[in-house]
Each structure stands twice: as C-alpha cells, then as structure tokens.
Amino acid sequence: MDTALAGNLKIASEHIRYDKCAKKVIGNKSVAAWILKTCTREFSKYDAEYIRENCICDVSIAESAVHQDHGVVLDGDDILGCLNSESSSINEGTVHFDVKFRSILPEEGGKNISIIINMEMQKKDNPGYAVVTRGIYYSARMISEQYGTVFKKSEYQKIQKTYSIWICPEPVKKSANSIIRYRIWEEEIHGKS
User: Which of 32, 100, 105, 154 has its CA 20 to 30 A from that of 164?
Assistant: First the structure.
C-alpha cells in the first residue's frame, strides 16, 4: 500500500542518491580541473591534465557533518580529503559545502598562490531565492573561516581568494548552456585616480 509517507520517503531517497552522485562527479579531480580551466581566469591558460596533477589538493566532499577543526578524509584514486566541507559558527549556523578544495596557482618567480574553491550542484537556478546571493554568502564564509589559520588580527592582505562555482543542471531556458560570472571589483565613482 503506497501512502503519502512512503512516496515522500522514496522522493527523499532519490534526492539523496542524486545529491551524493552529483558531489562525487564534481569532486573528481579530472572534472574539477575542467571546471577550473573553463570558469576561472587564473587557470584558463593551463592544460586540464596539468591542473589535475599539480593544482588541485585537499578536496573535501560533504558526506557527513564534521567539526570545523577536523576534516573528513576520503581515500581514492581521484578524491582526497583534508579541507573541511562544513563551516560551523555559533552565530551564523552551519554551511555544508558540496565540494571544497584548495588549488595552487603556479606563479612566475616560484611563488605559488593558494585559491579556495567551492563547487555546488544546485538542481534548479530558481529555488525561491537568488542563487548568486547564496554563492556570495558561501564565499564570505570561506573568507571569514581563514581568520586564525591564514591571517590574524589586521593581516587582511594574507586572505586567500575564493571561488564559489554553482552548477545548475536544470536552469531556466534563458540561462541554458551558459556560464554566468559574478564578481566584486573596484569602481571609482567620484574623483580621478
């Protein structure tokens, strides 16, 4: 006998399987390398294989809740775990990042730059709020959680850049097959430089 509860449980089970599979796909280093090459200015000049082998590290896929100071380690050929997939705050609550990793950008002169990447699967791009707003919030959380580990006190120049990349497999028709970038940049609105 199929009840409403049984139907809801089946839908939830399918959603959970979909969610886990989607995270594993975008958490695969080869897939992540192509996403970085395609969606970021910094990695666009590198070959995807080079990015996969040399630039992606500390990949964490949200499997279960973890404390902010303890990462989840997932063993496998293409998936490694060290960077937390969860950001907990007493005042701001908990954010579960689908996939989060540190990328290393080789720079001239031998100095490497670390960029923190978050990738999210969002089935639809209109879940009742602007996805871009949530993406900005996730980036802000990745910046604020660097306090005490990457920088302290007023050392804001040490903050590492973050990207929050959202993949929407069922967008509205006008956004289908497109990449849309949102960014923060300086704009002088008065005076002269």
Answer: 154
